[in-house]
Amino acid sequence: MENIRNFCIIAHIDHGKSTLADRLLEYTETVSARDAQAQVLDDMDLERERGITIKSHAIQMKYEHEGKHYILNLIDTPGHVDFSYEVSRSIAACEGALLIVDAAQGIEAQTISNLYLALEHNLTIIPVLNKMDLPSAMPEEVKDQIVDLIGCNRDDIILASGKTGYGIYDILEALVVKVPPPKGNYDAPLQALIFDSVFNSYRGIIAYFRIFNGTLSKNDKVKFVNTDRAYNADEVGVLKLEKEPKDTLYAGDVGYIISGIKNAGEVKVGDTITHVDNPCTEIIKGFEDVKPMVFAGIYPVETDDFEELRVSIEKLQLNDASLTFEPESSAALGFGFRCGFLGMLHMEIIQERLEREFGMTVINTVPNVSYHTYTTKGIMKIVNNPSDMPEETYIDRIEEPYINAQIITKSEYIGPVINLCIDKRGILKNQVYLTTDRVEITFEMPLAEIVFDFYDRLKTISRGYASFDYHPIEYREANLVKLDILLNGEPVDALSALIHRENSQMFGRKICEKLRQLIPRQQFDIAIQAGIGAKIIARETIKAYRKDVTSKCYGGDITRKRKLLEKQKKGKKRMRQVGNVEIPQSAFLAVLKLDE
Description:
Number of helices: 14
Shape: globular
Number of domains: 5
CATH class of the largest domain: Alpha Beta
Number of strands: 31
CATH architecture of the largest domain: 3-Layer(aba) Sandwich
Mean pLDDT: 78
Radius of gyration: 28 Å
Strand content: 25-35%
Distance between the termini: 57 Å
Largest sheet: 8 strands, antiparallel
Low-confidence stretches: none
Strand order of the largest sheet: 11-10-16-7-8-15-12-13
CATH topology of the largest domain: Rossmann fold
CATH superfamily of the largest domain: P-loop containing nucleotide triphosphate hydrolases
C-alpha cells in the first residue's frame, strides 16, 4: 500500500486536463505509441466533438522513482459546472488532486468550487500551471492568484505544458513525494466504495470501486450493502487502457468487478461492497446525494417506444448517476418521463446520448425548476412540472429556489454582466478585485432565471471571458403565475411555464409570435393564445390555406359567389372540429431561444 497513489485532476473547463492526462499516460508508458491519440481517456464521440470531458475516467499507471515501483491511479474529471457531481465522486476515491490552472486565463469560478470540494475531503493539493508554451501565458500574475487561493509557496507551483510535455516528470515526482499513500487494513472486513458503473450488453453491469479496507478476490461471495443483494465476483481487476483481470485486489486499490448483474436498479453509485461471510460494520460516508437543478419532460416521438425509452434511461443512469427520472404523462405528448438534470448542458448531453447510444429520438419539453407551493390549507407541495400546479384560488404562496452565483470576469465587462444579472432578478451581494483587471462578482438570483439562456448570454457579453459557478442557498417567496399556451382553446400542457408575474405579458407575447412562425399552416385558422387562469394576455392567429373557390365565377349574380363562399365556410368549420394541430419538435425548443 505504501507504493500506491490515488489522485484526480481538477480544473475549469478548457484548462488542458485531458491533454495533461495524455502526457502522464505517455511518459509512464501506459499507452503504447500505437494506441496514442489526443484525449485518450475521453472515449465518447460527444466528448471528442465538443472538446469537453463528460465522464470521469479511471486508469492505472506504473512509475519508477528512486528505484521504487509506484502504482498511480488517476481519475480524470470533467470541468463544466453541470458535471460537478462526477467530480465529487472522483474526489471521494482519492487522497490527492492536481489543481490545473491555465497560465493564460488564470483562476476561473469552477476551479474554485472544485478546489473547495477537494479541501473538504482533506485531499493534498498539487498546483500546476499549465499551457506555459502559449505566448499569452502570464506565469507571475497567475502564480499570485494561486498563492492567494490556496496559501502555498510560490516554489510549490509546478510549471508545465500538456502540449509539449514540459514539466511532466516534475508532476509525477510531486505525486509520489507529496500525495500520501492510502490508509487501510488488509485484515479488516472488506469495505469498498462504488464510484461509477457501466453497462456491457454481454457481461452485464461492471462496477468501478476503490477498496478502503480488506481484500477482494475472484469468486468471493460479496454483497452490496444498500441493496442487500449477494453476488459472486466472477471477475475482478484493475483499470488500464483495457480492463486487466487480477486474482486479488487489496486495500488502496482501484478496480472493477463483474458479477453478472443485469438489472440496472441493483447497482447504486456510492454503495459499499463487502463480503457476505464477514461483512463490515459501517458503510463508507462522505458521498453526497445528487440534487437535480433543472427538470424537463422527455417523451418518445413514437408513443409505442415508451418501454424502450425506460430501458435506455435506466442504462444511461448507470453511467451517469446524476440523472433522475420518474414516469409522467402529457395530453399533448402521451407517456414519457420527468427527468432531473444538473443544468442545461447536462440536459443537452443526455438527449444526445439517448439518440446516439440507444437510437432513441426524443422530444424535450420546456425545462423548469422545482417549486414549493403552499395551499390555503397550509399544505406544502413540491411542484416539478407546471401542469401539477394547483388552481390559483387554492394557492397561498409559491417559493422558488435561489442560488448564490459567482462570476469571475475581466473588469471591462463588469457593466454588461451586472446589467444581465439584474435583468434576471439578481441581487448584487459582493464585488472583489482578484487582480487589477479580474473581478469576482457575487449575486443571489432565482435558479429559474438561469435555466434558459443565461450562460450563453453571459459568454456573449463578456466575449467568452466570464466564468460562472453557482450553488443553491434557499427557497424564497415569489410572485409567480402559471402561463398556459392554448391552441384553438385547448391547453398544451407541455408548453406551460411558471413565470414571474412582471415578465408574463412579454413572455406570453414572445411565445405566441414564435409558435406562429413554427407551426405549419392548416386548412383552418389556428388561434394561439397565452393565458393566466381564465385571462388571455396574448394572441396570434395562423391563417388557413384558402382555395380561391370564386375563381370560376366571372360576371353573373353576386349570390353565386356568396353561395360558394358559404359552402367553403361550412367546410372550414367542420374541418376545424375534426382537425388537430401537430406541434413540431422545434416549437418546444424555440421557447428556450426566445431572445434570438
